[in-house]
Amino acid sequence: xxxxxxxxxxxxxxxxxxxxxxxxxxxxxxxxxxxxxxxxxxxxxxxxxxxxxxxxxxxxxxxxxxxxxxxxxxxxxxxxxxxxxxxxxxxxxxxxxxxxxxxxxxxxxxxxxxxxxxxxxxxxxxxxxxxxxxxxxxxxxxxxxxxxxxxxxxxxxxxxxxxxxxxxxxxxxxxxxxxxxxxxxxxxxxxxxxxxxxxxxxxxxxxxxxxxxxxxxxxxxxxxxxxxxxxxxxxxxxxxxxxxxxxxxxxxxxxxxxxxxxxxxxxxxxxxxxxxxxxxxxxxxxxxxxxxxxxxxxxxxxxxxxxxxxxxxxxxxxxxxxxxxxxxxxxxxxxxxxxxxxxxxxxxx
Length: 349
Prior knowledge:
Layout: E1 8-10, H1 11-21, H2 28-34, E2 48-50, H3 51-65, H4 70-74, H5 84-91, H6 96-100, H7 102-106, E3 114-121, E4 124-131, H8 138-158, E5 167-169, H9 177-187, E6 191-192, E7 199-203, H10 216-236, H11 239-251, H12 258-265, H13 269-278, H14 283-301, H15 306-312, H16 318-329, H17 333-337
Parallel strand pairs: 5-6
Antiparallel strand pairs: 1-2, 3-4, 4-7, 5-7
Helix pairs in contact: 5-10, 11-14, 15-16
């Protein structure tokens, strides 16, 4: 297996979706065969697949189930093993704070599906997830799965079955009233759709909650294993994948400068540019690709004002953004936003 522009995903993460598919009378082996994926995912004889392959599988499951809540429903099937080593490390942490801060550092072990950021706002913490996948059908299901899985797993870790966040934010537009009821049943908290991020918002004091079975010695052993796995993953990831992932994580704070990206990759600017050129691309091309991807996603799925998009994406003014967006798509941002929704699943169970 080689990496793709969406990186890789662990078989552990994939099996959560396949367990959920059985609720819809979809045989996991049949789903893998239909999408050209190896059956070894089921017994872990195949440990990882490419991100493109995983995205293809999720799209197949969404279209087969015809359920707009498939991603949300699949969160019920999270297990410690769904997060590979990271899940077992969290199980042995002493507090929610210790478990939480393991995620951004080691999440690539689970896969490159997204980037987790921990952001502090006064007495609140936002556990934010930035989806890396680019299929507009798959993204909302994956976001629902991740936020729902985080909360389900956290309730189990802390032995707090009724634990709930302060609120939950989704970039996607509000679903139907009937579907919102299902979201409320899962999260038991105020919901904000059309938000600027996908996140669980919690009181920082919650992070001091003790977990059910801390074992500091075992945690240290698992961290050593995780560090070795991460070193192998970094070595295998091509420079384009590393740069794209880092750019995505930094863009929420404004347009990242090349020297900052190079420094975080542990190389200088000249080396970064040379290695990207050897891979057939360049820094500006990657940045423009991600700006286009972010702009089209925000226009489809959020109510963010176009002037705010222009600023967030580093354009000097809205007119410059309009010109660039029209060059990308042949339409102005306003025309793009007014397009009819793309066909997607529309029936409920």
